[in-house]
């Protein structure tokens, strides 16, 4: 089997297929390890963690003097990205028994891929794990904006940084660069973090403002220019102007499928790849679903969930499915979590973590829903964690089954707390049983007790 | 119904009984809020959190200058203990509709209690929630040692602090006072934290030593004296001597049942109270179990689990059970968690968190056990959290049901991670389903993926 793209997803697909008895090749046009390792999760968390712990320290009486050294934080980031060298990753790939090819890979026909001059032919499957790239709106291009790549890899701190887009990338990078010394101006069409419950975005906006950022909601950029002196000028709806040294376009992602040969198998270059729950691509020319398709797509490129951990999850399922089918069996495990149990942690200050369905989505899905909220600041463990702790927790309950279908947390340190909700949702644990899952005093997790009490248990 | 002891357990018993339609009185001989609020969890965590966040900050490249101000940390502790005034707690008790009596309460007969001059008679139940006190070994008394009370409430930092006992109190107080400036000498019969998996105690010993404490394992104190100059001299097995300014006896707990009138109902003063799963005391004179006993005991005093959160859990079950029986119904919910799902977080540096059965206890209980370990330092999210992160995770699997029965975590920040294991154990979530509970990248919780991969999923 052949994998296009050696990000975390592709690596998992190949490694699981090899574990299942197949031989595998993987092709990468940039760096083995992928976007996540060099221009997304890893460098952003490497930048954000120092800012977060400094923020946490500042919130505890009796702890003083904490400060960030921007240069050292950038060095830390460089260490985690291995200075954008992938020797270690390439070695890991070869170490698990996968052939590693460098170069742009293109599908040339059924089970066939060309990488540079090498013609590869798979007996069983080809898997597209090419991920996404940043979309820059045409109106911003004249300003030569940063994308997530520059925002996570910049070697110096811009004095003034404008950020267009209030999603995860925009919010995380606003938090990081404001902490590192930039004067950040955040510009968002709507509220921040529109895909999670409203209170979370509100708390993040409060946090950014408290850190000194200028957060402007409900605005759009009508004109952008890079001036002769190198500065950026953005004209906003309403007529005001923002001047900055850099501008980050955090305005969405597009699939990296425009130049991988999709046209050779009847698919549309540049499109997201529609897959079934074994990660097999639908609509490949000449392949009925029942005939057993050979083309798979895992990770961001299939648009199920643009998150590294979900890509890896899909990668495991996909690699196992290919190995199973190679042995004439149908896959034992299929993609379940992407439908109703996708977790996400946003490493802003405060952190935001969510999993499963929001109240609105649960209602759309036909559940009889009850929403329970609790103020995290009223949890004893939270008050002990940070003086004046501010945060909120929400669970969404399916009243018919009395199980959780969603949860959202916002507050310092909630990132490691969401997995309890993920287990409750994945395990379909009834509330009556959750009542016996006692959280320890005095942890912030005791909010689970308060939520269930508030529910009426 | 009448409750003896207004700690968190007694407060929960009374509040739940009132919610269930009963009237309730609660008697407290010291401070409403109990040991936990003034001389245990709350002040210890108030002291430890500043030390923990300073330790976390010191482990992140790019964060500098963090220091503890001991005087301000002690002020913080005083704020959380309300300067050992219980007005707010007493007000809370009255606010939920419970009559509050100050004074020593003694059982005088069936359903009868005397508090000072007040004779109280319950229609339904009397509940003992008097908790425990520290046990000081006779050999230490001459040194006039601190107990947990002085260790959590001391107003100045001893220059040299010896600690006898390597359990939770000893380890937490060693971590706190070493961080606040004491030179701590820890003296333990055996290894540290003997009730949790060995690796956790080893990591805590390493942490204490790295912080500068002198940790001596396998030693006992043969002689102790308070000298004329106020210092303490401890002679140890092996013949060496430790000189300190204070010594903490962290050597176990005894039930506070010696002066509550147990003899009036055929029970032994000073004994732990044996209870059934509705928290009803067994062996009360003249009361067959089937006849429906009127005496209950919840929290530490029944020796099921000496933990505030388990006391509160029992308190909820007990209060509900009393209210149910008052209406002629049997309780719908009984104590389940104390048998196999007790969580505990130890706020040392590193933190330790455990839930359920250790491997040894699971084997004793007859399970066909498989233990899976994973080095937390190899989790990407852990490396990002703290440079050179050191820690370990263990799950104990019942191979017949393919469910978790125990978990232990040791490492920075694991305290909020254990609840996921608690939910998995309480929910009896099969490993095959846990596989779909995807932890977010890059959190430390991704150890769940690694544990399940290591298991073979």
Describe this protein with a few key phrases:
homodimer, alpha/beta, FAD/NAD(P)-binding domain, five-stranded antiparallel beta sheet, 15 helices
Q: How would you describe this structure to a colleague?
A:
2 copies of one chain form a homodimer. The first copy, chain A, folds into 3 domains: 2-33 and 86-133 and 254-337, 3-Layer(bba) Sandwich (FAD/NAD(P)-binding domain), CATH 3.50.50; 138-251, FAD/NAD(P)-binding domain (3-Layer(bba) Sandwich); 350-455, 2-Layer Sandwich (Enolase-like, domain 1), CATH 3.30.390. The first copy, chain A, is 32% helix and 24% strand. Chain A is an alpha/beta fold and 457 residues long. At the A-B interface, helix 3, strand 3, strand 4, helix 4 and helix 9 of A face helix 3, strand 3, strand 4, helix 4 and helix 9 of B.
How is this structure best summarized?
Two copies of one chain form a homodimer. The first copy, chain A, is of the alpha/beta class.
